[in-house]
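Per reviewer request, we include the raw input and output of the structure prediction for the construct analysed in the revised manuscript.
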Amino acid sequence: MQLTSLSAISPVDGRYADKTWQLREICSEYGLIRFRVLVEIRWLEALAACDAIPEVTPLSASAQERLEQIAARFDIDEAQRVKQIEETTNHDVKAVEYYLKERIGQHEELSKVKEFMHFACTSEDINNLAYAVMLEECRSQVLLPHLDQLSARIAELGRMYAEQPMLSRTHGQPASPTTLGKEFAVFYHRLVRQREQLAKVEIMGKINGATGNWNAHMAAYPEVDWPAFSAAFIRDLGLSPNPATTQIEPHDFVGEYFHALERANTVLLDLCRDVWGYVSLGYFRQRTVDGEVGSSTMPHKVNPIDFENAEGNLGMANAILGHLAGKLPVSRWQRDLTDSTVLRNLGVGIAHSVLAFQSITKGANKLEADAWRIGRDLDENWEVLGEAVQTVMRRYGLPEPYEQLKRLTRGRRIDRDALRAFINDLEIPAADRDRLLALTPADYIGNAADQARDLGKED
């Protein structure tokens, strides 16, 4: 059967193919080969620029242009040629080396130095750098922009509903009121913090040979300071050099990267569940979409499906990211190959994350607060003011303030009149009594509105 979005095994490339297209050029097999090609070309260019390696003369403008054309014009057809070569080599990185030698073979100058393509490199020298560049592009081009868009939308909802009072629920039970906007403020600050931690993860690389000691490099050119040369090369790729490795870069930074992404995903999963609950309570209505169906049998339903889809994809993402973060830093002795097939799934966890980000954004754009429904819940729970009353009683030394309010309110609802009758009997200053008598559940919000009013404007 021909591979299409209908025959794909993974929903990332099947049902959701139209939502993950941005990752195809970065995280696919094609993307990996493209990054390998780039690293190999840059390595040859670096060798040519080193005076201590006279056998590779400085590249002419013509040679430089040819190499840049190979990198810039590398497309799916060129990647297919690499795969054809791999059918013979049965080695993916060697296939890239042979492909590049093939592509420069007709250029007189480059053909003379083609044996310096992949010079002194083990496959992992190329692979670790290719994956590192892949993760950097994923972060800068996909993940951070999505997280910025999400945090901006959450901040917008926070400001929009900054002053909308709402009954809180702790342990699922009525609790001291807040505002709807302030609850979005909590998620905004949590998400921004995790976003910043993801952005700060140092993406590392190595190019130091078969066991990390520059053995072959030093055998050929002992006069070259290979650690410094390699570090400069890695920095030129936009990465940080790892000063000591075995054959493989140990992937600790990959664990840090995915743990940071996991934490951001966990914040958003928590948001999805809370919003789902608020929709269930009727605090939010969802704008309907013409032609959309909520149930195959119940026509009235408008399901919070975007937040449910997001929750499911966040769970899938974190399951994959957690395995990658836990497995990749572990390798037997100088290397084993258990990382090879695992690394090819870098894009899968990221893709499920991106699917969730898109669903949350879509769902958030449908939300409309139902002020009447929220207000009704507040008006039905005057007992939440018991906290305020007993705290004022504590100030003025009245006996057993907590216990008195417990007897009045615990496990049952009281109305405004019952609470006011209790307040009128208190021996407290008149100004404080009047303030408590004027208090309503909708007014008892502390500084919640202030926490949300200017949300995101400082960024």
